[in-house]
Design goal:
Layout lengths: L9 E3 L1 H8 L7 E4 L135 H5 L2
Antiparallel strand pairs: 1-2
Length: about 170
């Protein structure tokens, strides 16, 4: 049941995504969903945007500025967020399965309760991020900057963690 905050069975017109990229937030719901639309917001300045609950599955957000944005509960499945700036963004409860977050800036981001199954976090900076209760199964954390990050209750099955780890139970909250 993912969808835009307006209603799940509606879609925003492509021209409106172009308006968003230019900073115009007057978007209107205009048509019933017929087939999936994959927004191309590469390099867009979406700092502080309210995208809570948005359906951005497969979206191209490469190098987008999402600093301070609210993406709580958003569907970002298989989205391209490589090199994106998510500094201090609220991504809590978001669905990021197989999302590409390579080289993303996630400093101080709130990723609590997010699902990051098999996501690509290679080279991402999670310094100070809140990952409490996040699902990181199948994620390779060996090239991720984690310290200090809140990792209590994180699901780590099949996850590659940095080595050597001093006191893993204390660091990973397990």
């Amino acid at each position: 049941a993912w969808g835009w905050p307006f209603r799940h069975d509606y879609l925003v017109r492509r021209a409106d995504f172009d308006a968003i990229r230019q900073g115009n937030w007057n978007i209107y719901v205009i048509e019933r969903r017929k087939q999936p639309y994959v927004p191309d917001l590469a390099g867009a300045d979406l700092a502080g945007a309210d995208l809570a609950g948005a359906d951005l599955a497969h979206a191209n957000l490469r190098r987008a500025n999402l600093a301070g944005a609210d993406l709580a509960g958003a569907n970002l499945r298989m989205a391209n967020l490589a090199g994106a700036n998510l500094n201090r963004a609220n991504v809590s409860g978001a669905y990021l399965r197989q999302a590409d977050l390579a080289g993303a800036n996630l400093r101080m981001a709130n990723l609590a309760q997010s699902i990051l199954l098999s996501a690509n976090l290679r080279g991402a900076d999670l310094t100070g991020a809140n990952l409490t209760g996040a699902d990181l199964r199948g994620v390779d954390l060996s090239q991720v900057v984690l310290s200090p990050a809140q990792l209590a209750g994180v699901h780590l099955n099949y996850t590659v963690v940095p080595s050597p780890v001093d006191e893993p139970a204390a660091v990973l909250g397990v």
